[in-house]
Specification:
UDP-N-acetylmuramoyl-L-alanine:D-glutamate ligase; alpha/beta; 4-stranded mixed sheet; single chain; 9-stranded mixed sheet; globular
Length: 336
């Protein structure tokens, strides 16, 4: 019986600053609060999954520099009981870092990213040959120069990694980042034959399907459904989930679309939305790993995402499955 989730790819240090406003060029914004924590899809999903269920085996894989930032991320993994032998260290590159600026009044954030060691990560450094894990969560496409480039006969290294994961018997999921739609299409579409699930946001699914999903800045649920259906039909996935602030759309082969409302988190509780997408994905992956019905997995995904909004850091407010669900149920669902 295989058990556990590998969180591979992007491990980065987030240097988080809460600011009073987003400034115009050559003007000033005041820093209200600052903190630092690990970030990136590998780190965030690892810690979120461990928070949801401390008994779940979680395996970290990625590439760190031999520097204080790398020490910090490695210690974060170990102190949270994440199996860290797959977190490799190199001298030639600094550990990846991201400066995250969050506007206090809106919770919206902007990222400035230095890839460092992530650019040097190769498919050969992600070894699944003897893993006892059940699933692989892999990302971030577009932020790793070597994996983003052709590898052998494959169009990019992500495809190579996913092929190896499937050969090792793993269920697979990738995480995207909101970059130029054309670039996401180039990197992700070749991966679709090697995926079991795809969990993305409204902007990302629109870019992949080349369908406008946010006309005039307003999410169109019908367009998200159309885009998700198009991408599901183009790959091997059994499930595609699209999340947006008001809710989510879930498309599964041979089934009716499921549209779920998110939870109505009080404005006073919202500190930042950084990490909310990772929390959502972690909830879905946990439910699928445990064999839950998809409705239960979606409920946990929205609950974990709601709970995450209470912290300025990526993983600071996600609690156990029971704690997330209790908080979300107290908030109630969004209306309309």
């Amino acid at each position: 019986m295989r058990r556990g989730i590998i969180c591979a790819g992007c491990w980065t240090l987030d240097r988080i600053k809460i600011i009073d406003q987003w400034p115009a060029e050559e003007s000033l914004a005041r820093i209200i609060e600052q903190d630092q924590l690990g970030g990136g899809s590998g780190h965030n999903a690892s810690l979120d999954l461990k928070s949801l269920d401390s008994n779940l085996p979680v395996f970290g894989m990625g590439l760190l520099g031999e520097d204080p930032e790398g020490d910090f991320l490695f210690q974060q993994a170990q102190s949270n009981q994440i199996e860290s032998t797959g977190l490799l260290r190199i001298k030639e590159q600094h550990t990846s870092y991201t400066d995250v600026f969050t506007v206090a009044s809106t919770g919206k954030r902007t990222f400035f990213h230095s890839p460092g060691a992530n650019d040097a990560l190769t498919p050969e450094q992600l070894d699944f040959s003897n893993t006892p894990a059940k699933m692989l969560h892999l990302g971030l496409l577009g932020l790793h120069a070597t994996l983003d480039s052709p590898w052998g006969d494959d169009p990019n290294g992500w495809v190579t990694v996913l092929k190896a994961a499937k050969a090792a018997g793993l269920q697979t999921n990738v995480e995207l980042v909101s970059i130029q739609p054309e670039r996401n299409r180039k990197l992700c579409l070749p991966c679709l034959p090697y995926l079991d699930t795809l969990i993305v946001n409204d902007q990302e699914i629109g870019g992949l399907a080349n369908i406008e999903t946010i006309p005039n800045g307003v999410v169109c649920i019908n367009s998200c459904t159309q885009a998700a259906t198009k991408i599901l039909d183009a790959g091997a996935m059994h499930t595609v989930v699209v999340h947006y602030p008001q809710g989510s759309v879930c498309i599964q082969k041979g089934k009716e679309p499921i549209i779920s409302a998110s939870f109505d988190v009080p404005a006073a509780d919202i500190v930042s939305s950084v990490g909310a997408g990772d929390a959502f994905a972690s909830g879905i992956l946990y439910g699928l790993h445990e064999g839950w019905e998809i409705h239960q997995s979606l409920e946990l995904a929205h609950a974990a995402s709601a709970a995450s909004l209470r912290s300025s850091t990526t993983v600071g407010a996600v609690g156990s499955v029971e704690e997330c669900l209790a908080y979300a149920h107290a908030c109630g669902r969004r209306l309309g």
